[in-house]
From TrEMBL:
Protein name: EthD family reductase
Gene3D superfamilies: 3.30.70.100
A Pfam short name: EthD
Superkingdom of origin organism: Bacteria
InterPro entries, sorted: Dimeric_a/b-barrel, EthD_dom
Domain EthD: 12-83
SUPFAM superfamilies hit by this protein: Dimeric alpha+beta barrel (SSF54909)
Amino acid sequence: MFNLALLASRPPEWTHEQFIEWWRGEHAEVTYPLPGLRAWRHTAITSAMEPRSEGWDGLSVLSFDSEEAARAALAGPEWDAAVRHVGRMRGKRIAVFGEEREMFLG
């Protein structure tokens, strides 16, 4: 799997609960049509482990078969629609790509 990982924080005027509901609800509906999307995992962050990790509300991991498939999906109109849906929201975001390796399955 090749993943796009997104760590995001809510706009300052939103509550954590509003942001998670929006992300898992109406924003998810706009994101599901991404071509080649194999899996999507979302974590609603409930607390930071340490002070330098504070300020984040959620983590999404969108999985594709390959880097080429991920980049093709993000070059298409479906991704453009998802970006437009976010609009001028003033939250923060970190977006990174990477190859997944399963390290442990209990």
